[in-house]
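User: Sequence recovery, please. Input:
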């Protein structure tokens, strides 16, 4: 079965290649027509290719010279990858919202635009509630292709020999979209190396990959607490969002009060899902211009900010368990290397959710702006670094690579979505990868504390507050 699948992928790639060859001069503009003008604002519903546009031309493209170890002696000795699942169907809750909007447009919209006519006469509502966030075929490809690219970027670590000898470990959240992503990642490697005589396990571990469900303090104070998102609610009732809703109503020629913030969100999702899943520039996208899309993006960023990131301290602290897990693997590899032993775990591939990655990125200090995102500073936040469209598309990944540069010189290179990044606050080492001991020193307080049990209990002991 996996072999047949690979052949289909290969065939598919051949078709694309042939196509682009025949229409060489047109291929870029033709591709661009398929991309909605607002695709770069889809937040956590965004396509991975929007973050790395060179992949649109060649989905297996890798540029090894982005990795610049300070000396030619440096060797990769360990890699941990924390990866979001691939492209998926909408969840039941969002399908319901989409259905409501579709019914309204179908029965009440009276605009005369071609795209509206297309929605009303040709487009069919094919999303069903039982899709429930499952991984789609594009999501399978997301992970297969990522696996192949990472094996090209780190050939000495993600290698057939290391896979065969059990030095690559797979850990996943229990959600079907994550398990299927993990299986797809493994299939990307086994098909690449044509491995048919061996299978590779994965461990399901929700304590690590869905820590947010297990952190009582987070669940009570944020996740199940409606007042935790007041800034989001206020923004959705505010002038910027009102204007977006009115413009949608104008385009459809329906009364203003029929387009709620939920309806606007559903329209945005429809455009985003049609693109992510089917790579089509759907007529639904015509309900937004770029200014509208920026407002929708901000509403999503605001939600992620308060629910998973800097909004509340517990959001990032809920990831303490994953933070320690990552550093204990790095420590183990570092200690084995330093004492002249073989590194027993070369690679760990961990598959989870946007909600897994964002708290960890926040704990590490990434994408922290000077001002908090709130309901009244939309304009002032135009140049914010906190942009989930850039950080968390489908298959988003944080990769930490430990290098041995000889003479006990261990260095750590972080990459986000396959691009080198620098640990915030370790900026003076921008040109080169920081020494691992400097990274440990930088995060000393977290390494000594950040205790999941303690942070996540509802009432902390006074001496630990
Ligand atoms: C590869 O990355 C290097 C360093 O960032 C850059 O100078 C070079 O232009 C890139 N090559 C390609 C083909 O993109
Ligand atoms: C994902 O896994 C389930 C079984 O858990 C299977 O039924 C489904 O077809 C898989 N989906 C994809 C896209 O591989
Ligand atoms: C939002 O943040 C700005 C600073 O960027 C501050 O001046 C303003 O009072 C805040 N608004 C609310 C509602 O907290
Ligand atoms: C954002 O950056 C642009 C370009 O650097 C600048 O012109 C603009 O004033 C900035 N906006 C804000 C609100 O800081």
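Assistant: Recovered sequence (465 residues):
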């Amino acid at each position: 079965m996996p072999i047949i699948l690979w052949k289909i992928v290969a065939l598919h790639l051949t078709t694309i290649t042939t196509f682009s060859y025949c229409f060489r001069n047109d291929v870029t503009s033709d591709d661009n027509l398929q991309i909605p003008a607002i695709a770069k604002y889809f937040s956590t519903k965004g396509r991975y290719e929007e973050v790395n546009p060179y992949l649109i031309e060649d989905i297996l493209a890798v540029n090894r010279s982005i990795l610049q170890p300070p000396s030619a002696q440096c060797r990769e000795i360990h890699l941990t990858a924390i990866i979001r699942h691939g492209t998926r169907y909408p969840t039941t809750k969002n399908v319901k919202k989409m259905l409501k909007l579709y019914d309204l447009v179908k029965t009440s919209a009276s605009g005369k635009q071609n795209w509206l006519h297309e929605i009303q006469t040709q487009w069919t509502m094919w999303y069903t509630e039982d899709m429930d966030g499952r991984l789609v075929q594009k999501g399978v490809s997301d992970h297969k292709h990522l696996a192949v690219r990472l094996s090209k970027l780190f050939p000495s670590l993600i290698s057939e020999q290391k896979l065969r000898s059990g030095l690559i470990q797979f850990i996943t959240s229990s959600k079907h979209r994550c398990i299927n992503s993990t299986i797809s990642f493994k299939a990307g490697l086994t098909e690449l190396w044509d491995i048919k005589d061996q299978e590779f396990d994965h461990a399901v571990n929700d304590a690590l990959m869905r820590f947010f469900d297990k952190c009582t303090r987070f669940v009570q104070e944020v996740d199940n607490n409606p007042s935790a998102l007041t800034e989001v609610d206020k923004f959705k009732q505010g002038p910027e969002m009102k204007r977006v809703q009115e413009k949608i109503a104008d385009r459809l020629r329906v009364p203003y009060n029929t387009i709620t913030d939920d309806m606007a969100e559903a329209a945005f999702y429809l455009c985003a899902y049609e693109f992510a899943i089917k790579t089509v520039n759907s007529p639904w996208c015509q309900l937004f211009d770029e200014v509208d899309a920026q407002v929708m993006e901000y509403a999503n960023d605001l939600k992620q900010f308060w629910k998973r990131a800097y909004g509340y301290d517990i959001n990032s602290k809920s990831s303490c368990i994953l933070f320690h897990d990552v550093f204990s693997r790095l420590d183990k590899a570092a200690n084995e290397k330093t004492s002249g032993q073989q590194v027993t775990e070369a690679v760990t591939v961990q598959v989870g959710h946007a909600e897994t990655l964002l708290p960890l990125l926040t704990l590490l200090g990434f994408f922290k702006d000077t001002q908090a995102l709130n309901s009244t500073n939309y304009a002032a936040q135009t140049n914010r670094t906190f942009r989930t469209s850039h950080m968390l598309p489908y298959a988003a990944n944080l990769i930490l690579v430990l290098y041995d540069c000889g003479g006990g010189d261990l260095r750590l290179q972080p990459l986000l979505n396959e691009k080198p990044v620098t640990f915030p606050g370790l900026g003076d080492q921008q040109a080169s990868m920081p020494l691992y001991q400097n990274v440990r020193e930088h995060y000393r307080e977290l390494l000594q504390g950040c205790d999941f049990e303690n942070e996540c209990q509802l009432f902390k002991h006074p001496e630990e507050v």
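The CA atoms of residues 245 and 260 lie 7 Å apart.
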